[in-house]
Automatic annotation (TrEMBL), chains A, B:
Keywords: DNA-binding, Transcription, Transcription regulation. Coiled coil: none annotated. It comes from Streptomyces tremellae. It comes from the Bacteria. Residues 10-69 form the HTH tetR-type domain. This is TetR/AcrR family transcriptional regulator. PROSITE patterns: HTH_TETR_2. Residues 32-51 bind DNA.
Amino acid sequence: MTAALTAKGRATRARIVESAALVLRESGVSATLDDIRSRSGTSKSQLFHYFPEGKDQLLLAVAQYEADRVLDDQQPYLGCLDTWEAWYRWRDVVVARYEAQGDTCPLGTLFHQVGRSTPGARAIVVELLRTWQEHLAAGVRAVRDNGLLPASYDVDTAAAALLAGIQGGVSIMLATGRPGHLEAALDWGIARMREGAVPVG
Amino acid sequence: MTAALTAKGRATRARIVESAALVLRESGVSATLDDIRSRSGTSKSQLFHYFPEGKDQLLLAVAQYEADRVLDDQQPYLGCLDTWEAWYRWRDVVVARYEAQGDTCPLGTLFHQVGRSTPGARAIVVELLRTWQEHLAAGVRAVRDNGLLPASYDVDTAAAALLAGIQGGVSIMLATGRPGHLEAALDWGIARMREGAVPVG
DNA sequence: ACGGCTCTGGACCGTATGGTCCAGCCGTCT
DNA sequence: AGACGGCTGGACCATACGGTCCAGAGCCGT
């Protein structure tokens, strides 16, 4: 079904997904197919032409779109966490990104809307978290291999704890509007690694 | 309006809130007034008799009910975090509590449903986080005052980072079904404090 | 130029759901 | 005992929303 798409068709489909993402960021849970339709300048039939399985299929596409952006927005910093300075630059980008996002949580909204029942939504989030943590672990490994951390350092627990701190910091920011917890989690985490650092001669 | 409640009325109201909480834990977002009505063995008119402002008011009452349970479930451990052993006991209770809760997030659901727009929902969550963090800070202060941490220890950042780690760990558990991140955040956090500990003679 | 495909518009439908209303029950107070 | 007022049942309503359908426009290969 996707194979039959014309260039025009592909453009329309993309427009729908992007518009839907915007609407969802603004209206959250209460976003309706009609909102998306009017925002994207399409008609009801187009929505169901490109997403025959209905709303959930569209929301899933939006979720994938948003998930892709999460990691993209952290690049190129997330990809080269090999010095403490790089870690701090990345920290700043993460804080800035989520501060800019304000009190909306696109993926959270989508996840709650589509529901745990749908395996697709879960898969997207799980995959995002896995990749994210892998990047963090690669960063910890990089500083370790640079001789900044002892060879025996527990990379995976560190990456997992860092990821948890970020997620929690973002959650709390959504509730309170303050980025303090996200900052505390990142700073505390990075500082903790540095405390375990190999003293530089 | 609340003042005019008979003992019977108060009982019915409580039954409605508790039933609603159960239904929301099971059905999540898709919980409907009719589900709550049938689960609580009441009628539509009773729902609106006790919550004249409608569904949002009821959901808010449920949110308060759930928020109260969050901290209660961590007692008495959360209240006396004055030794490292106490911290570990508390850690186990937190992990057990959220593991038992499984992949449902009552407060998260409620928050997403009622929406950020409603000031009431936000206030409940903010208050919960504030109290929770205060307990953690009190615990850090307690071990510090017991001479286990240096007097200059940054209590507030530690408490904030710990809270963020918990929140994130729970979020990730909701998505993946695995408690690993919650455990990693707690263990890493407590270990970090112990690394800063005053050596015992 | 023509046949067939995709793409688009928009009227229409079924229904789930929050909310209203009113009649009658029951407890409680004097 | 009687009356007042909270308590309860359940029929009823309005409507928002996801989804269907069909007719026609527009593009594309042959």
